[in-house]
Amino acid sequence: MKQSDLTYLGGIIGGLSGIPTRLYKSGTLVYTHSSVNLPADPIVLHEDEIMAITGHVGYYVTHDFFYYGIINYKNYKLIIGPARQLYDDQTLNDLAFRLDVSPADVPQFVSGMKSIISMPLESLLQVMIAMNFVLNKDKLALEDVVIYDKDQEMLRKTMEREHLDKTIKDFDAGGEAVQHNTLAMEQTIVNIVRKGDVNALEEWVKNAPAANAGIMASDQLRQVKNTFVVSATLTSRAAIRGGLDIEEALTLSDSYIQKCELTNNISQLTNLQFHMIKDFTERVSRVRFGGKSNLALEVVNYVRRHLSEPVSADAIAAHLYMSRPYLSKKFKQETGETLTDFILKEKLQEGCHLLAHTKKSPAAIASYLGFSSQSHFSRTFKKYLALTPCEYRSKHARD
Questions:
Q1: What is the mean pLDDT of the chain?
Q2: Closest CA to 335 of 386, 369, 283, 300
Q3: All domains of the chain, ordered by start, with CATH?
Q4: pTM of the model
Q5: What whole-number distance in Å separates Cα of residue 332 and Cα of residue 327?
Q6: Cα Rg, the chain, nearest whole Å
């Protein structure tokens, strides 16, 4: 098939799916079709990994659960993506920040990404499979591309439910485990997540004991995945108890389970499971407020979900269906600080993390965190931390 035919096919598929499509020849981009105008192409963050994928049909899932479908045909590579099932402002603002999208163009980027058709990965892969047949004359089914063992599906659901019910029942009752030696470990991890104790988690990992998770499937890979799903459920439940927003916890759990099901490497699954537990623990750590009230936790959750916006007390009050004066008074009574001070401290905490762990400029960080200007960010930063952003980076930056 000629290159002109491939570009024609890419344009048709891109138009039908509503998802950006690209054609590469020998590693060089030769054609792009997109129904949206994005100031920056998200693929640049993962291009090397995506280009390394071989096989007629493949896919790549990013850490924030965007996915790309890939078809290899001779020396050409056809890529469709990014796609996602859900698009939220905070995730898209984070993505724009990592892509160095200018502040003036961020609204256009967020709007453009939201206009990309939401599509499950399985549906995207069905499109890729059809295109692969046209190009490579290769008849594939979905189970040839992803792990999807229909024979194990009913067993998986039944055993997961039984194991989960038993584990939660034992944990909630404070009872003693007799079935497997994992319950003590599960209780330890659940308590760590609930408390948001990142240091305890890291210390526990150094000395983590071996465990027998019990038989939930006859296949080793399926067994690891079943254990992962149980872990995700327990961990998300513990995070909710620790104060994490219910919607955020459940959405995160679903995303990790989806990525688990798309992974067929046991070592990668093990790493993903630790990353998931650490992710939940860190999120709880950020929202915990010294054991204060549910009101304080609700405010923390709101601020964390809107860090890249100019968060105001009025917006929080509206979200919680309260008047601003009542919310401000109640918050001050329960926490000892004003809403304004708290919002600034949360933003500055994130600013410290970005200064220490990224090479983003103070101006870019200031814009991302919703400050009116770099000078406003610098003045506020020095007021609360007695250092300028540059001084803080010089002292705390990690290679």
A1: 80
A2: 300
A3: 3-145 (3.40.1840.10), 150-287 (no CATH), 294-396 (1.10.10.60)
A4: 0.64
A5: 8
A6: 24
